[in-house]
Amino acid sequence: MSTQAAFAAALLNVQMPCPDGLCSRNGADPSRRFAVYRNNVQSSLINALADSYPVVVQLVAEPFFRAMAAIFVQRQPPQSPLMSRYGEAFADFIARFEPIASVPYVADVARLEHLRTLAYHAADAQTIRPEQISAALADPQSLSELCFELHPSLHLLDSAFAVVAIWAAHQQEQSMAGIGLDQGQHALVLRNGLDVEVFALEPGASVFIRHLIEGSPLLVAAEKSPPFDLAQTLALLIAHNAITRLNYKKLP
Amino acid sequence: MFSHHEPSLPRTQAARTELPARAGLGLKTGHFLEVLGSVPDLGFFEVHAENYMVAGGPFHHFLALIREQYPLSLHGVGLSIGGEGPLDSQHLKRLAELIERYQPQAFSEHLAWSSHGPVFLNDLLPLAYDTPTLNRVCAHIDQVQNTLKRPMLLENPATYLAFEHSTIDEAEFIAEVIRRSGCGLLLDVNNVYVSCINHQRDPLAYLDTLPLHAVGEIHLAGFAEDCDNLGDRLLIDDHGAPIDPVVWDLYRQVLKRIGPVATLIERDNHVPAFNVLMAEAQQAEALLRQAGSGS
User: Fold this and answer.
1) Name one GO molecular function term (chain A) (predicted).
2) Using an 8 Å Cβ cutoff, are B124 and B157 in contact?
3) A75 lies within 8 A of chain B by CB
4) Do A81 and B91 lie within an 8 Å CB cutoff?
């Protein structure tokens, strides 16, 4: 094993002894000095996860979070120097993390927080002015072919838990009392200008937006979805600058 | 409009950096609005390149606005120049794109490694100072400078331990890298002090071994204090404290030797209010002015 391979392995696995071949000029035990690097690596990666998942930290309390994150760091260290991407697999890890099985909604809250990070750094895109959208919706000739392109920051999350309510309660230190934790919610995450926003959608509206993302024309997307309030959903997308392009697709 | 203040540097230094010989601050996301609102009197801002390797959103929005008003130093923390493996060509490409986009006055990276194979360790890790490492580091710096089509600044490290098979003194190693590759030196005065205390060397002798004519930028930061198993001081470069008086003294010694050079106040942890960092920047500016007036 090369010097750096041995060094890297011992940084990540805290059970391993200090690598061979290290020394200090005063003759001190190099393991105490190696521990500085190990601590830097461990704490910087755990801190990066804590910064990306602030509500998960609150839900499980910081000591538990750090212990859980330490195991994740050892099993799935970063594969890129872009730390904003680190933790993509953290929600799946939490979902399989046995000690937290009694709090099953934590993994979905982590998924929501990850989508917020993605939305925050997503590409910029010009949005369509509401008048243009109204005009397109008012034209009966082309309405059946009208398709929407949505903002690159827009993401959906279907959860069996009240993921939006749980997340929102932790933005202002509100209590979770009164939240029906098992009442599933459909989250919409997007960046409006510089701010990332989170909404709970009706189930049908979530399916509808998914069809729009896949390229279905507006009317087809609405028909293929369970009942929902189309006008309200369009108003939400328009008001929050989610529509970035109008296309017209010839139907077969 | 750029607030350019031409540094009064010898040509060799001026060639390595276009940063003004003034104090600058690391740009923190929590300070974006305050910087744009108050436009503080600073020579430049510095950002970590990797934080801005994202598609869009607030980071680019604010950096573009701040760049319109200040010179910029782009500081990489993830290239792993000392790594045993080849440089990550994708990462180098991302750096080239950022440099193209923001036209920074300086680009710097570290004498350290941070990746091994596919794994990124998010820390600046120490190198064995021997001939194979010297050859590898020089080849990597050549590749960086050829790809980016500009000279880079290499930062001296803060180290906590040494390798039994090292054959070259740290300062001599840095001097040889700079001589061979033609890169400049980002002189981190705090790192000089931390490394010298940790390896029981004299900071002034260390400074005088470095090729100070190649300094294109200076970093000043705080350290944390620990001790090893023998009870000797073990200093940790944590960028989480005010600059220590002993580091200010060492900085005066540097300015005495080379005159005023762009100086960054570096704080990445326990980031205080903006005015606290401004006070440290003003302290550095006063010393830079003194050095410039030859007193």
Assistant:
1) DNA binding
2) yes
3) no
4) yes
Give the domain range for residue B253: 11-292
**Per-residue tokens: B164:** 């039994």
The one-letter amino acid code at B49 reads: A
Contact A3 B114 (CB under 8 A): no
Question: Which chain A residue shows the shortest CA-CA distance from B236?
Answer: A36
Asked whether the beta carbons of residue A26 and residue B230 sit closer than 8 angstroms, the reply is yes
Distance from CA of B251 to the nearest CA of A (A): 25
The reply to whether residue B119 touches residue A28, judged by beta carbons under 8 angstroms, is no
- A24 in contact with B at a CB cutoff of 8 Å? yes
Q: Rounded to an integer, what distance in angstroms lies between the CA atom of residue B100 and that of residue B94?
A: 10
In order along its 295 residues, chain B shows pLDDT tens digits of: 333 433 333 334 445 679 999 999 999 999 999 999 999 999 999 999 999 999 999 999 999 999 999 999 999 999 999 999 999 999 999 999 999 999 999 999 999 999 999 999 999 999 999 999 999 999 999 999 999 999 999 999 999 999 999 999 999 999 999 999 999 999 999 999 999 999 999 999 999 999 999 999 999 999 999 999 999 999 999 999 999 999 999 999 999 999 999 999 999 989 999 999 999 999 999 999 999 986 5
Nearest CA in chain A to B114: A81
Q: Residue B119 is nearest to which of A78, A124, A153, comparing CB atoms?
A: A78
CB contact under 8 A, B164 and A194: no
pTM: 0.94
DSSP labels for A187-232? EEEEEETTEEEEEEE-HHHHHHHHHHHTT--HHHHHHTSPS--HHH
How many Å separate Cα B271 from the centre of its chain?
Answer: 18
- Tell me, what CATH number does B231's domain have? 3.20.20.150
Which CATH number among 3.40.50, 3.90.930, 3.30.1490, 2.30.40 corresponds to the domain A123-252?
Answer: 3.90.930
**Diameter over CA atoms, chain A:** 85
